[in-house]
Amino acid sequence: DIQMTQSPSSLSASVGDRVTITCRASQGISNYLAWFQQKPGRAPKSLIYAASSLQSGVPSKFSGSGSGTDFTLTINSLQPEDFATYYCQQYHTYPLTFGGGTKVEI
Amino acid sequence: EVQLVESGGGLVQPGGSLRLSCAASGFSFSTYRMHWVRQAPGKGLVWVSRINTDGSDTSYADSVKGRFTISRDNAKNTLYLQMNSLRAEDTAVYYCARAEYFGSWGQGTLVTVSS
Is residue A76 within 8 angstroms of chain B, CB to CB? Predict the structure, then answer.
């Protein structure tokens, strides 16, 4: 199975900050990488697919980059509604696997 | 608007069975592969199963293989997950999701396996 390792597992940030989350795959996955946001008690929400393509309706302050094994999610100008847990996921190979999550806290 | 609505969760004893449903609307259901993903309380997301567009091909996580069966009814725009021989470790919120990159999710249905 492909292991997805996210770092950090949690971070503290302030409103207006720029935040970067990294995700590393245990083997190359090309650009078959997605990012999700999840708030407590809610279903995950798709932010990015194909490593850098923004889902419809997602604000442009979210951006993704990377290919192969190393990927990043960047959130510009953090707002109160952005405090959540973020997950990466590879869809290159079954079983599909997720990173362990990064909790973005105030 | 894409909508996925899960149902069928509840409390079941170990060794019991449950069937989850996911009603889809707002898109051409029969043209998308569909998935089930679960999340145990306080834990991360785990992929469970996938079915292709016409239901002829399926795949499962090792943890549920032989116990869970995914299926779909394209005429009813509905995805199913038959769960047998349930264990305490199957306790989770179960989500249905569209396509390999999980572009759309349902709200989830809670399955609790406990005596």
Answer: no
